[in-house]
Amino acid sequence: MTGVAFDLPGSWVWDFWFADDGERYHLFFLYASRALHDPDARHYRASVGHAVSDDLRTWTQVPDALVRSDAVAFDDLATWTGSTVRADDGTWFLFYTGSTLAAEGKNIQTIGYATSADLVTWTKQPGPVLRAQGPWYETIDSGAWHDEAFRDPWVFRDPDGDGWHMLVTARAPEGPELGRGVIGHAWSADLRTWELRPPLTAPSANGFGQLEVTQVEVVDGRPVLLFSCLAEHSTPARAEARGGTWAVPAAGLLGPFDIDGAYPLTDERLYVGRLLRRRDDGQWLLFAFRNADEAGEFVGGVTEPVPVFWDGGRLVAGEAAAADA
C-alpha cells in the first residue's frame, strides 16, 4: 500500500481536499477521535482539520477549519467533505457538507460554506445554500437509500468565464436502486447564491449507487472526472471490479460524462482519489486515503502523492506509469 504523507496518531483521517495559495499547499481533511473505538462512528463526529506544506510530503497541522454547529442547524451532526476556491476579490470560500438527522434518524445532507481572508480563520455563512429537491434529485421520502445524499461539493470556475459550477454527490429519484447515483449540478454568479440545475449524468443499470467526492480536471490537455464508490454501493456489473476511486472519460469540465465507461483508478484499499497539479513542474499527482488493510479493516491517513499519466485513453497512476511515459 502507498506510504502515508499525513495522519494523526489520535484520530482517524479520511476525506480531504486541497487549496494552493501560490506559496503553500493547504490540506483540509475530515477527522474524528480514535476514542470512539468504532471507525464507522467517525462519520457522525467529523470535523474539518487543516494542515500546510511546501512540498506535498511534509505537512504541519494548523488550527482546525470547521466544527459542527450547535443544534438546531443543518450541520449540527457533523461537517463533511467539500472544496476550497478563491473569489476574484481574494476571499476564500470553503464549501462543505452539513450533516443532520431527520426525525426517523436518517442522515440529511445539504451544502453550506464558510469564508476566510487567510485560509486559517473561517466564518460560517448562513445556510444551507443548496439541498436535494425534486424533480431531479432523490430525497429521504423515497425510502430507497440509507440517507438523503446531497454532499461533497466540488466548485470550479466556468471554463468560458460564466460564473462558477458545483458538482454534487446526489441520487436520481428513479432507476435501479444501486444505479441511481448521479452528478448533481448547480451554478452561481458570485459563489454566494446558487441555482440548482439538472444532474449532469443519468442513472444506469451498469452504474453506481453513489458517486462520492467528485473532481473534474483537465490533465495534460484531456478532461477527466474522478469519483469514488465501493462494491457494496455499486450495481452487480461494477461490484466485481472492487474499485475504490474511478476515472471517467469526459468531453469537457461539464461533460458529457461517460459513467458507463468508468474504470478503476485505484482498488478498494485506496479511496477518495484527488488530483493536484504540482506548482513547480506542472506534474499531476494523485493522493488518496488508506481505506482498508489486507484484513479489510479501516486504516485512514492521506497517502504520499504518485504521478498520473495517460496510457492510451486511460488515466493511470504510479511510478511505473511515470517510467513508461
TrEMBL record:
Keyword Hydrolase in the entry? The reply is yes
Its Enzyme Commission number(s) read: 3.2.1.26
Residue ranges of domain Glycosyl hydrolase family 32 N-terminal in the record: 23-228
Signal peptide positions (record): none
- The reply to whether Hydrolase figures as a keyword in the UniProt entry is yes
The UniProt keywords, alphabetically, are: Glycosidase, Hydrolase
Spell out the family assignment given in the record's similarity comment.
Belongs to the glycosyl hydrolase 32 family.
The protein's name in its UniProt record: beta-fructofuranosidase
> Where does this protein come from, organism-wise?
Microbacterium flavum
Organism ancestry: Bacteria, Bacillati, Actinomycetota, Actinomycetes, Micrococcales
